[in-house]
Amino acid sequence: MIRLDEPLKLLNTFGLDVSSRLFFAFSAEESLRSLWKTNLLQLTSPLVLGGGSNILFTRNYHGLILKNNIPGRELIKETSAHVWVRFGAGEPWQDCVQFAIANHWGGLENLSLIPGSIGAAPVQNIGAYGVELKDCFVELSAFDLVSGKVRTFDQSDCAFGYRDSIFKREGKGRYCILSVTLRLNKNHEFHTQYGDISTMLDSMGVKTLSIKAVSEAVMAIRRSKLPDPDVLGNCGSFFKNPVVDASHFELLKKQFPDIRSFPAGEGKVKVPAGWLIEADGWKGKRVGNTGCHQQQALVLVNYGGATGQEVADHAQRIVASVEAHFGIRLETEVNII
Ligand code: EPU
Questions:
Q1: What is the per-residue pLDDT for 266?
Q2: What is the mean pLDDT of the chain?
Q3: Which pairing describes strands 61-68 and 19-26: parallel, antiparallel, or unpaired?
Q4: Helical residues (DSSP H) of 113-175, grouped into ranges
Q5: Closest approach atom of ligand 1 to CA 260
Q6: Ligand 1 centroid vs 196 CA: distance in angstroms?
Q7: What is the spatial distance between Cα 18 and Cα 307, in angstroms, rounded to a whole number?
Q8: Cys-Cys link to 51, which of 35, 116, 215, 306 (CB 3.0-4.6 A)?
Q9: DSSP one-letter string for 222-268
Q10: Alpha-carbon distance 103 to 84, whole Å?
Q11: C-alpha to C-alpha distances, 3 to 21, 23, 109, nearest whole angstrom
C-alpha cells in the first residue's frame, strides 16, 4: 500500500525530521513487481531506502521512497572450506554479521557494527579495518525499476572500488537490490594488521584469535570513536579519504610533517580525511546544531534539531576550508538528497 507524507525521522540515522510524499514498504519481490505494473515507478522518482545510514535529506522527498524490508538468510552451497549464504536485502547488516559468527563462518567480523542493511552494503562496497564487502561478495539480484526484470550482478558487473560500485554511477537510481550472496570461510583468516585491532586485542587480553574476538575488538574500537546514531544522529564517515598523487603528497609532507597516509597503488597516496579536517581545526567544533564529532573529525553529527541543509552547508564549509589549506578537494561519501 502506498502511504502519503510518511515521516522519515526514524528511518534516517541523521535523525532528520523530513517526510516522503509517497512511501512504499515491501518484504517480497512480488510486491515490487505489482507496483511496477501500475506505472507509478515510471511516473515518480523512486528512491530505494535501506537502513538510512548513508543518506542526508536536505528537504522533504517529493517522489516515492521504496523501503526494502526483504528478509532471508539461506545456506545455498557448502564445501569443506566455504559456505555460500544468500541474504535478503532488507536484513540489518549487523544481524547478518552476528549470524555468521554464531555459525563459525568467517569473513564479516572486521565489518562488525556497521549500520545499514545488507542490500545497501554493495552499493558503496562497505569497508572497515582492512576488509571490504567485495572480499566475500559472490553475486546479487536486483530488480530493474525501468524494465521490471530481475538481473544478477557478479563481482565484475558491480565494478567495486573504494566506497564505490556501479550502483553509485551508471546504475544509480535504477536498481532495487533484492538479495546478496556472500561466500564465508570455515577456515578462518584473521585480518588484524590494521593497527588499532591488534592493540585492542592485546588490551582485551586475547591470546588465541577467533572471529568472535576480532568482532569484539572491532566493536570496541567503533564504540570508542564513532557516535551511536541512536544517541547522536550521524552517517559514519561523511567524506571519502582522498587519493592524491605521490608528488602532491611529498609537497604536503614538507609543509605538514605530521600528515598521515596509506599507500594507494602506483604513484598514489590515500590521505585520511579525518586528519585533514582535524588539522584544519574543525574536530569537535559545533556550528549551530551540527559539527564534527569530538573523537572522529570525519563524522558530522546532528546535535538535535539540525536540518539536512544545515549539515550540507557545514560540509561545504569544511570542503572549502580543507581545499584552501591543503589543495585537496574532499568528496562526500554520504548521499545528499
Ligand atoms: N585521524 C585524525 N583525526 C581524526 C580522525 C582520523 O587524525 O579525527 C587520522 C588518524 O591518524 C588515524 C587515521 O586518520 O590514524 C585513520 O582514522 P580511522 O582509523 O579512524 O579511519 P578513517 O580513515 O577515518 C575509515 C573509514 C571508516 C572505517 C575506518 C576503519 C572511510 C571514509 N572511512 O575511516 O568507515 O570504519 O576507516 O577502517 O574510508 C564509514 O565509511 O562510514 C566508516 C566509518
A1: 87
A2: 95
A3: parallel
A4: 155-158
A5: 11
A6: 11
A7: 9
A8: 116
A9: HHHHSPPTTTSEEEEESBPPPEEEHHHHHHHHHH-TT---EE-STTE
A10: 13
A11: 8, 5, 37
Q: Which domains does the chain have, with CATH numbers?
A: 3-68 (3.30.43.10), 73-185 (3.30.465.10), 233-336 (3.90.78.10)
Mutate to test the pocket of ligand 1, among 298, 322, 333, 335 (most ligand atoms within 8 A of CB): 298
What band does 209 get if pLDDT is binned at 50, 70 and 90? Answer: very high
Across the strands, what pairs with 27? none
What is the residue whose three cell numbers read 590515500? Answer: 270
- In this structure, the residues whose C-beta lies within 6 A of any atom of ligand 1 are 128-129, 225, 236-237, 240-241, 260, 272, 274-275, 278, 283, 296-298, 333
What dihedral do alpha carbons 187, 192, 193, 195 form, nearest 10°? 180
- CA distance linking residue 111 with residue 136, whole number of Å: 11
Distance 136 CA to ligand 1 centre (A): 22
Query: Does the global pTM surpass 0.85?
Result: yes
Please identify every residue annotated as catalytic.
163, 237, 333
